[in-house]
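pinned: reference chain
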Amino acid sequence: MPSKKRNYADEYKNYQGSAEQIANRSERNKARRQAAKAGMDIAGKDVHHVVAMSKGGTNKTGLKATSAAANRSFARNADGSMKSEVSKRERKKK
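pinned: its structure tokens
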């Protein structure tokens, strides 16, 4: 089954370019700058919010550098929101 070609311009206009998403990206960029200024080694890593921004966290509630795989491995609900703050990998450790 051939897939429909993605229209990146429409995607940006409808989602990434919205005021809410621009503000979210700005907060993520600010967190990365704060982590670098605090002396964290963030090269090649994601800056992880201890309490997720979508769950009420802020840049002041704790940041740490983690691998992209660890930061992006949370289970998701059908609407895309996180099911849990703890990834499957972290649950197995306990």
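why pinned: The chain is about 40% helix and 10% strand. Residues 8-93 form one domain.
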